[in-house]
Amino acid sequence: MSEIETLKKWIDESNNIVFFGGAGVSTESGIPDFRSVDGLYSQKYKYPPETIVSHTFLTKRTDEFFEFYKEKMVAPALKAKPNKAHYKLAEWEKEGKLKAVITQNIDGLHQAAGSKEVLELHGTIMKNYCDRCGKKYDVDHVLASEGVPKCECGGTIRPDVVLYEEGLDMNVMEKAVRYIEKADILIIGGTSLVVYPAAGLVQYYRGNKLVLVNLSETSQDQYADLVIHEKIGEVFSKL
């Protein structure tokens, strides 16, 4: 039986699937990831992207932060459309097979495809708030603003995204752990599992159907019950 046939059989037999995904799920929708050869980390800027999308840079060089953030992170995400992987996950959820999508992505494409239970470990560009009064703003407001987006109270409107130097939302992490612990099948897709603490979530899985779908090898390949080195959209379109 091929890997795809095995995966199909497991999915047909399960109604407690949890999906954990990373940048590779969105690259097939045309959103550059940070680490690949043509990803954001390889492009030439005055500062490395990981410096720009940090808490320090947001507070010290706010103008430059928002210039990069709007052009390189928000604009591509708003242009992007969900791909076969996003739609397949939403379909499984509707059928009662999939319990949750846990994602490291901030682009909102899972929700755009119809997924309801989406745990965004690194936040989302779709939500923004004033750092002074807490008033909420949508992504269009931020994109339309000249320079640094400002609240009517005078505070800076910042994205509800976890930047470098900032901690993850522990409520979201705890919820993700609960889903993973109870899962029958855990499918990990489009992530090289190098970003912690998110990558550490895998250790909470207790089952015997750990599936890894990623173009390149990951640190967890040896522990997986099924490994498929292909693009996740292509794999999911065969299911």
What does this structure look like?
With 239 residues, the protein is an alpha/beta fold. The chain has two domains: 1-31 and 83-122 and 168-239, TPP-binding domain (Rossmann fold, 3-Layer(aba) Sandwich); 45-79 and 126-161, SIR2/SIRT2 'Small Domain', CATH 3.30.1600.10. It is built from ten helices and nine strands. Strand 2, helix 7 (109-113) and strand 3 form a beta-alpha-beta unit.
Keywords:
239 residues, alpha/beta, Rossmann fold, SIR2/SIRT2 'Small Domain', 2 domains, six-stranded parallel sheet, three-stranded antiparallel sheet, 36% helix, elongated
In a nutshell, what does this entry contain?
With 239 residues, the chain is of the alpha/beta class. The protein has 2 domains: 143 residues, TPP-binding domain (Rossmann fold, 3-Layer(aba) Sandwich); 71 residues, SIR2/SIRT2 'Small Domain', CATH 3.30.1600.10.
Task: Trace the largest sheet across and list its strands.
Answer: 3-2-1-7-8-9
Largest sheet: 6 strands, parallel
| Number of domains as seen in the coordinates | 2
Distance between the termini: 14 Å
CATH superfamily of the largest domain: TPP-binding domain
Rg, nearest Å: 18 Å
